[in-house]
Amino acid sequence: xxxxxxxxxxxxxxxxxxxxxxxxxxxxxxxxxxxxxxxxxxxxxxxxxxxxxxxxxxxxxxxxxxxxxxxxxxxxxxxxxxxxxxxxxxxxxxxxxxxxxxxxxxxxxxxxxxxxxxxxxxxxxxxxxxxxxxxxxxxxxxxxxxxxxxxxxxxxxxxxxxxxxxxxxxxxxxxxxxxxxxxxxxxxxxxxxxxxxxxxxxxxxxxxxxxxxxxxxxxxxxxxxxxxxxxxxxxxxxxxxxxxxxxxxxxxxxxxxxxxxxxxxxxxxxxxxxxxxxxxxxxxxxxxxxxxxxxxxxxxxxxxxxxxxxxxxxxxxxxxxxxxxxxxxxxxxxxxxxxxxxxxx
Amino acid sequence: xxxxxxxxxxxxxxxxxxxxxxxxxxxxxxxxxxxxxxxxxxxxxxxxxxxxxxxxxxxxxxxxxxxxxxxxxxxxxxxxxxxxxxxxxxxxxxxxxxxxxxxxxxxxxxxxxxxxxxxxxxxxxxxxxxxxxxxxxxxxxxxxxxxxxxxxxxxxxxxxxxxxxxxxxxxxxxxxxxxxxxxxxxxxxxxxxxxxxxxxxxxxxxxxxxxxxxxxxxxxxxxxxxxxxxxxxxxxxxxxxxxxxxxxxxxxxxxxxxxxxxxxxxxxxxxxxxxxxxxxxxxxxxxxxxxxxxxxxxxxxxxxxxxxxxxxxxxxxxxxxxxxxxxxxxxxxxxxxxxxxxxxxxxxxxxxxxxxxxxxxxxxxxxxxxxxxxxxxxxxxxxxxxxxxxxxxxxxxxxxxxxxxxxxxxxxxxxxxxxxxxxxxxxxxxxxxxxxxxxxxxxxxxxxxxxxxxxxxxxxxxxxxxxxxxxxxxxxxxxxxxxxxxxxxxxxxxxxxxxxxxxxxxxxxxxxxxxxxxxxxxxxxxxxxxxxxxxxxxxxxxxxx
Lengths: 345, 545
Hints:
The complex is a heterodimer of chains A (345) and B (545).
Chain A: H1 13-35, H2 38-60, H3 65-69, H4 73-84, H5 91-106, H6 119-130, E1 138-139, H7 151-160, E2 171-172, H8 175-184, H9 189-193, H10 206-222, H11 229-248, H12 256-260, H13 265-272, H14 283-303, H15 310-326
Helix pairs in contact in A: 1-4, 1-10, 2-4, 2-5, 2-7, 4-5, 4-6, 5-6, 6-15, 10-13, 11-13, 11-14, 14-15
Chain B: E1 27-28, E2 34-38, E3 48-49, E4 56-57, E5 62-65, E6 74-75, E7 80-89, E8 97-105, H1 124-133, H2 146-149, E9 159-163, H3 173-180, H4 182-196, E10 200-206, H5 210-219, E11 224-229, H6 238-246, E12 261-265, H7 266-277, E13 284-291, E14 297-302, H8 307-313, E15 324-326, E16 333-334, E17 348-351, H9 371-375, H10 382-390, H11 394-399, H12 410-414, H13 421-478, H14 486-510, H15 521-544
Helix pairs in contact in B: 3-5, 4-7, 10-13, 13-14
């Protein structure tokens, strides 16, 4: 039976995905500006593999291709993973990441809407445990690199290996990595922060990219694609726990501002933790889910073996989502509140 | 003077399309050769037919009498001859047939003598009986017999709310009625206030109807407050309007009367005025005909008018029409048979075309985006209910308060994956009802069986007792002069009785209950699941108390 309503509001999943991708564009442009054209290649390679794996899996599962491919969900996953990975990594790294994201995390669980874990973060986690070296070679800011790569150079690097140029000429560690290594060597904070890779808030260049993600995230909020709960709780969780650690021992733990504007925090707060399929869905649940994810991020950064903690924090909280949702159901209209005094005002 | 309004959560803003039909006055329809008057036009028991084929009737004559408590009368819309009392197509989502009186009009349109009522000097209960005989049912959509709602029934109804929100898109019959007949409508409200003894009277109208608001403000006497509420569907839902105006939430599973509030549609107030002050039974209503027709607008339509004649009165459907909707697009349904008549519940007929009502896009997987939860005016989590409805896990669906769903359609409206959520919820509700029914009949069978066993046992016991008594008597008369001590005598009686009881017990043990023990495991499982659900619900209601 197909009954009322006979009129629809005109929302569509594919448009939502497109709008989220649109919200990523300022960050991508900033990335290209500060780190060179490598980002275009990683985005392209990830997108191609994402669509390829998605189509292959749909065929294997005997599902119609057209609607699933045009919902843009695989493309969005590709972009989110590409933006979480170092640019200028070999092409097979992106391929393996997308394999885990699309095939394992998404399609093995039944496709769009069925997955328990954030596909992009599964891809990231699989790569960082398998290829830790590649995952720490980030493109250096163009103005700090010994060798500025052209688009063609970048293409060569991704598909044919380094060739004549040594990776040291165009990559560097991230600020989180540098901080961690140096702080453990008890380097004075002032001399760590005086290194050229540190900018006004986070890593040079990367802080602006993060600010652009923040801008895109606000667009998502204003266009009502996300609510404030997850980004705010996540950022507060990160800032509060990083701030607390910083207060306890400023020589070992960087301040909250550096944490907010480096690594995957801004991208995670607005684009990854907010993935509706894998996030908590009730208002209170979102606060708990994202708040704890933020705290976990800071803890993993401070005490864990990996420089960044967003992916693991989000995945750990994904596990808790069914539990959180069950116990945070909102009050239903007419239940329990008891009659309020009739309005006389 | 300004009243504090409360804002319910959720809701949507669909295109109103109201200007299409609200620009012209309510038109009368020419007399038709034939009317089909269903005997069930209200919620509850159908009216009992009082006429048979061949009878002649007058306009306003009662042709169906209220049958039982939740019922109301049905009247002839014109004078003429009854040609049949038989099942006919009625406007219902299932396209079902229902018993109807078919009247061939004689063209004279002669009426019975209408007897106005001096209601101010009448006891409210006499007034209610009159309303019942006049066939009044709520015109807001639920068509609940009005006389019942006019009975405070021991509860204090401090606030009377008139619902003129008309939040459904396309529909404008209440709008036109309020603009054109505000003084009469207000008199109907006075009668309601008299019957209920309410102190506060609030008339809620969505602010997209400024003319109606102005007309009612001009007509309303002191003590009746006309309040503009923001236009947001489903702002005219009974619970939503009550909350907007008073901040009071109707308790789940309860009625607004539980919190001292009664809600009527404005159209019902107008019909009440006609029934009481003019003595005219409910034989017509204002209905909107709009969409893909030549002259959309509102008509004073006699109950029983075939819907095809209503379309014709509006100049007919235009080329390219693709079916008709009864009611609005958010909660209405497809008309299966255009011979079905206008009933008291029909407030609107929309002729569709593919541009106004495009085919629904294909259903995609739920991504739990939560748009439905944000749009839900009942604060439900539709995507969770959808998940369990789809899995036919009705117990879980119910635990997410499925039965608080008012089927307003907001969730389906906003769903980016175009999932017909409300359809899933209707399906789940009907499945749960069906299982409840099965469970109830199994329960009844068990109770019947247990009673039968008990009865047989009692009869045997009675017989044994009688036999013992008779034996005693004959023995007594035999030993009439012998002096027997009282005690051993009673002892004997007891022994005989005990023997009879033992026999009865034995027979009881040999009789095995049949109809509840030979259930298949599937049925038994279902019964168990229902029992568990019931226990949970009871626990819940208890904890709420």
